[in-house]
Write the structure tokens for this entry.
Amino acid sequence: MGAVWADEHHGHEDALLRRAQRALVAAALSDEEDALEAVGPAGLRNTMPQTRELLLLLFGACSTMISALGDGGDRPVRVQVLDETGEEVSIDQAEPAMRTAVRTLLAEVHGNTDAAADQVEIALANAAPDEVDSVVLAALHWTLRLATECLERDLPVPGWIESVFSE
């Protein structure tokens, strides 16, 4: 029975990666509505376990790429929070959804996956659907930007993300 569970688990991971890839392709094409629909139906994204898993997958990938860009910590990558005018603001001045996204990313970057998972849980449990959508879109856009930067510098990018650029 263990092998069957492992195959089912592997199938679940494959489905999650395909969902993430569809969302990334749509986001790359600037179709935010399709990107969000790839994650799940409107109004249900904040209650779907797949949303939590997808966000943690994306933020984990971002963390890996930040590490590569930062040369394993030798050249730190700076995370900035900008307001709607493009001015840098402190994380505490950012909109709640952006605060959650940045805190999740920072937790992942610092290797604290439990804190990252907690941030995602808080967002999904307490945020309005449009705020959840903002966190999802931030994760998608950051993943694309970091992947582009890594590819331009000939740095490693997770294969499931790199394949998005060849579709």
